[in-house]
């Protein structure tokens, strides 16, 4: 809807994880390197954690893209399963035949793992949203990790989940599973500089000739309201572009960001900015030494490709809900008049 107005070819801030927009911060690169090393070096059990919306699923998809045909990986996206459903998914994902019981499954799976290992091949089990796993399924994961030779694990297991996964693994009854963890990694939210590069990069990938659509302080507010979480950044920026289009504003200022934040009932920044200062877009060039990393010094065409994180923020609520809804209605009326 706002593409032509801002010179875009497509939506730059979709909530789906499009690999074309993959943006790897230092934290994401470190996590991806840990996942690659853990699987390829046959380290066994690997745990990845991160707050909601920081890109855990995107890291899993990036891992899949880096693995070659020597790796057979089963991916379980929804861990809220019964034991029988969990075992059935293993049968389907690993292509096991004539499985009539759990004992048969373990026997067939053992043969598959031994055969693949003998041929230099890797087998992996990747479980997303692992913080939602029941204690019973976590015990099954521990038992699956027992497939091993004298010096290597036969099944590489990746558990990905929110920080609650760490608390879950710290339970006394799961200490045996915790002791089997060979690698741990955690995705950090974006820094202010990474948030700016993230926004500019996504706009440039979406076709913007001039990606400086967001004023400097608007980007600062996006960072503060989102706390550097990519999913929330995407939601704020997408709605800000819609508002800017409705208002015929070629430059997204801090007033639009504040309005969008009120509409989504986001917490206000802990420290505010001087609202009387001029709002200038081209103040976005890198500042002095010590504040800018290598990615910041790159021109927009060379920015690291970015990562779109899927999900959805909660809309409306709180004392500003009625006023926000009225503004949304006026915004849509402007759109329909165009």
Question: Can you characterise this structure?
Answer:
The structure is a single chain. The protein is of the alpha/beta class and 338 residues long. The chain has 2 domains: 26-187, P-loop containing nucleotide triphosphate hydrolases (Rossmann fold), CATH 3.40.50.300; 190-337, no CATH class. Helix content is 43%, strand content 9%. Strand 3 (122-127), helix 5 (135-144) and strand 4 (155-161) form a beta-alpha-beta unit. The longest helix is centred in the first third of the chain and has 17 residues, at 102-118.
List the helices and strands and how they pair.
Blueprint: H1 26-40, E1 45-50, H2 56-66, E2 71-76, H3 83-94, H4 102-118, E3 122-127, H5 135-144, E4 155-161, H6 164-169, H7 175-179, E5 181-187, H8 192-205, H9 216-226, H10 230-246, H11 254-263, H12 321-337
Parallel strand pairs: 1-4, 1-5, 2-3, 3-4
CATH class of the largest domain: Alpha Beta
Which architecture of the largest domain per CATH? 3-Layer(aba) Sandwich
Output the number of helix runs. 12
Overall domain count? 2
Distance between the termini: 11 Å
Order of helical and strand elements: HEHEHHEHEHHEHHHHH
CATH superfamily placement of the largest domain? P-loop containing nucleotide triphosphate hydrolases
Q: Which assembly state applies to the chains in this document?
A: single chain
Radius of gyration: 23 Å
Q: Low-confidence parts, pLDDT < 50 over ≥5 residues?
A: 272-338
CATH topology of the largest domain: Rossmann fold
Largest sheet: 5 strands, parallel
Total E-strand runs: 5
Cross-sheet strand order for the largest sheet: 2-3-4-1-5
In percent, how much strand structure appears in the residues? 5-15%
The mean pLDDT is: 82
Structural class: alpha/beta
Q: Tell me the overall shape.
A: elongated
Helix content: 40-55%
């Amino acid at each position: 809807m706002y593409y032509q107005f801002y010179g875009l070819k497509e939506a730059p801030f979709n909530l789906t994880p499009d690999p074309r927009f993959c943006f790897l911060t230092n934290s994401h690169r470190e996590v991806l390197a840990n996942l690659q090393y853990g699987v390829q070096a046959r380290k066994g059990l690997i745990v990845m954690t991160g707050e909601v919306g920081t890109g855990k699923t995107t890291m899993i998809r990036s891992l899949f893209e880096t693995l070659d045909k020597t790796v057979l990986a089963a991916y379980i996206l929804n861990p809220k399963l019964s034991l029988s459903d969990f075992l059935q998914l293993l049968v389907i994902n690993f292509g096991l035949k004539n499985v009539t019981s759990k004992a048969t499954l373990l026997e067939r799976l053992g043969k598959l793992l031994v055969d693949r290992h003998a041929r230099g091949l890797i087998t992996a089990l990747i479980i997303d949203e692992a913080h939602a796993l029941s204690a019973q399924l976590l015990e099954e994961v521990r038992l699956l990790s027992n497939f091993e030779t004298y010096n290597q694990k036969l099944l590489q297991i990746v558990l990905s989940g929110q920080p609650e996964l760490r608390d879950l693994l710290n339970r006394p009854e799961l200490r045996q599973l915790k002791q089997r963890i060979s690698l741990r990694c955690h995705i950090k939210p974006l820094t202010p500089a990474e948030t700016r590069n993230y926004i500019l990069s996504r706009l440039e990938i979406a076709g913007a000739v001039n990606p400086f659509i967001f004023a400097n302080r608007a980007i600062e507010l996006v960072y503060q309201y989102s706390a550097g979480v990519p999913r929330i950044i995407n939601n704020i920026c997408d709605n800000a572009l819609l508002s800017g289009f409705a208002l015929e504003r070629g430059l997204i200022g801090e007033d639009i960001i504040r309005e969008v934040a009120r509409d989504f009932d986001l917490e206000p920044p802990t420290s505010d900015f001087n609202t009387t200062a001029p709002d200038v877009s081209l103040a976005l060039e890198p500042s002095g030494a010590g504040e800018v990393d290598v990615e910041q010094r790159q021109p927009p065409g060379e920015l690291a490709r970015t990562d779109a994180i899927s999900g959805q923020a909660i809309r409306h609520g709180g004392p500003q809900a009625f006023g926000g809804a009225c503004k949304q209605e006026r915004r849509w009326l402007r759109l329909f008049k165009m």
